[in-house]
Design goal:
The protein contains 8 helices and no strands. It is mainly α. It has one domain. α1 packs antiparallel against α5, α1 runs parallel beside α6 and α5 runs antiparallel to α6. The chain is globular, with a radius of gyration of 21 Å.
Length: 226
């Protein structure tokens, strides 16, 4: 059992971090699933993903098995999708207009378009798990909660759901925390972020190799022509 002086005992900072993780993996993820349902009804998903699969970035094995299984077609439901996969699908197979800073970039604080709100959830997810310390100061936690809540309220309007997720976010803000469950949420969020970083590193390596090949080829052609 952790003592009062133990570095592992729950503190206000760790509770803040855990509450932020629950926010992202609970109502935020469910809301993004509903946005995808509105943009691409589940009954149309197999056809749509077949048309758009070559426009998708590299998927990790778990994501590919979910939406493009070998020897078959997608037969699950959107409840299987995490924030990482939802972001990929919303960005690449839906006709959602990019925010003015462009997909993959931090949107302006006052940008309230759908893509900006989706992006804000992704950015907060990344920032929440980026720090090696599983704790959030009150000021940082309040900034995160305010940013996410604004995005949630605006996406509720898009979904015309009677402010359902806004209410869930407000309930979660003050609900009792379960340390065991919260560790599960944080582990899942960290895994999503790690998968994203692995994909980015893979793409960066490919781009570097292509660039080196192109320079080498251009040099050979120049040598031959000279």
């Amino acid at each position: 059992m952790a003592t009062a002086n133990s570095p592992y005992i729950s503190t206000e900072g760790t509770t803040n971090a855990n509450r932020a993780c629950r926010l992202l993996l609970g109502p935020c993820t469910d809301q993004l699933r509903d946005v995808l349902r509105k943009e691409v009804p589940p009954s149309s998903f197999v056809v749509e993903i077949s048309k758009q699969k070559y426009n998708l970035p590299r998927l990790n094995p778990e994501q590919r098995d979910l939406i493009l299984p070998h020897g078959g077609s997608y037969s699950g439901n959107y409840d299987d999708f995490d924030i990482s996969l939802l972001y990929i699908l919303l960005r690449n197979i839906c006709n959602i207009t990019p925010h003015k800073n462009g997909w993959g970039n931090v949107p302006d604080v006052n940008d309230s378009c759908l893509s900006a709100n989706i992006e804000k959830i992704r950015v907060v997810r990344n920032n929440t798990v980026h720090s090696a310390r599983p704790t959030l100061a009150n000021s940082e936690f309040n900034d995160i909660w305010t940013s996410v809540r604004v995005a949630v309220v605006e996406m509720d309007t898009f979904l015309s759901n009677g402010n359902y997720y806004e209410r869930e976010v407000d309930i979660l803000r003050h609900t009792t925390m379960d340390p065991v469950q919260d560790k599960h949420y944080r582990d899942q969020l960290t895994k999503q972020y790690a998968d994203d970083q692995d994909t980015k590193e893979y793409i960066r390596t490919i781009e570097e190799n292509i660039g080196s090949y192109q320079k080498e080829t251009a040099g050979r052609i120049s040598h031959i022509e000279g």
